[in-house]
From TrEMBL:
Gene3D superfamilies: 2.60.200.40, Probable inorganic polyphosphate/atp-NAD kinase, domain 1 (3.40.50.10330). Residues 5-132 form the DAGKc domain. It comes from the Bacteria. SUPFAM superfamilies: NAD kinase/diacylglycerol kinase-like (SSF111331). It comes from Mesorhizobium metallidurans STM 2683. GO terms for molecular function: ATP binding; kinase activity. One of its GO terms (biological process) is phospholipid biosynthetic process. This is Diacylglycerol kinase catalytic region. The keyword ATP-binding applies. The lineage of its organism: Bacteria, Pseudomonadati, Pseudomonadota, Alphaproteobacteria, Hyphomicrobiales. Keywords: ATP-binding, Kinase, Nucleotide-binding, Transferase.
């Protein structure tokens, strides 16, 4: 028995540039409509964000069904926060880190079935300088990687694209100085990268912290204070598990608000896109959106 009423209207948006966007759209439509949803389709126009569409069509629909990757989700955050409309996610991107964090099936058809059979539950969002993010915001190496990794490369090479560009960047990466202000203290650090996570996964399966969730009401911070780039090779297994905070050259803590300052402005990468610059003021936005995802106890 479905929990979605037959007369519910879903604003259906699929990013046509998503890596798997065109392959499954027709089958996904059948699953959603077969589950009792009336689909109101719209497309992302030139110079338009997903949030623009959501805000424009807010009175036409009862929920948003969004197909794409983490960048597409990021583009929807403002609209979801302002309207309060629940979100159904179809993971069609390269990494789909948010979907993995909250337990949404990687198979788009199974994700569609979850949308028509499940109940939405509240999730947090991160915010930096007014820019919302689902997964992680970072300064340093990851931001440089985001600048170098083009949409064409991501679509053609998938996760391999991250590795190819990352290897080239690592060979010339250098530490930079940053100042952290959090929980009543100020710290000066030398780091290759700082990351601030709302959820657990980012960057194609890397983990901010092994116990992090997208509904725990806190941000998880870590800083890679390594002497040599090759040190990251030994850290890689921990970075994937989210246990890097146990290493001596990785600073890690949980907080709800944080400011990162640098001697010159540095770009901030939010969910794979460069959206703002340092100084960067981070905070958690509790229970900001509602997402169709499995119950927390089943993850």
């Amino acid at each position: 028995m479905t929990n979605i009423k037959p007369d519910r209207r879903a604003l259906f948006i699929v990013n046509p540039n998503a890596r798997n966007g065109r392959k499954v759209a027709d089958d996904v439509r059948k699953t959603l409509e077969g589950g009792g949803l009336t689909l109101l389709e719209d497309q992302i126009g030139k110079g338009e964000t997903v949030s623009d569409i959501i805000l424009r069509r807010r009175s036409d629909c009862d929920l948003i069904v969004l197909g794409g990757g983490d960048g597409t989700l990021n583009s929807s955050a403002k609209g979801l926060l302002e309207t309060g409309l629940p979100l159904g996610v179809l993971p069609l991107g390269t990494a789909n880190d948010f979907a993995r964090t909250v337990g949404i099936p990687p198979d788009p058809l199974k994700a569609a079935a979850l949308i028509v059979s499940g109940q939405p539950r509240p999730m947090d969002l991160g915010e930096v300088n007014g820019q919302l993010f689902f997964n992680v915001a970072s300064i340093g190496f990851s931001a440089e990687l985001a600048a170098q990794l083009t949409e064409k490369a991501k679509k053609r090479f998938g996760k391999l694209g991250y590795a190819l560009v990352a290897a080239r960047l690592l060979a010339r990466s250098r530490l930079f100085t940053a100042y952290l202000e959090h929980d009543g203290s100020t710290e000066k650090i030398r780091t290759l990268q700082v990351s601030v996570g709302n959820g657990k996964y980012y960057g194609g399966g890397m983990s901010v912290e092994e116990t992090a969730t997208a509904d725990d009401g806190q941000l998880d911070f870590y800083s890679l204070e390594v002497d040599h780039w090759w040190r990251l090779l030994t850290l890689l297994p921990s970075l994937r598990k989210g246990t890097q905070g146990k290493w001596d050259d990785v600073r890690a803590f949980a907080t709800t608000e944080l400011v990162v300052k640098t001697s010159r402005p540095r770009p901030v990468n939010t969910d794979g896109e460069l959206t703002t610059w340092t100084p960067a003021h981070f905070k958690i936005v509790r229970r900001a959106i509602n997402v169709h995802a499995p119950p927390a106890t089943t993850r």
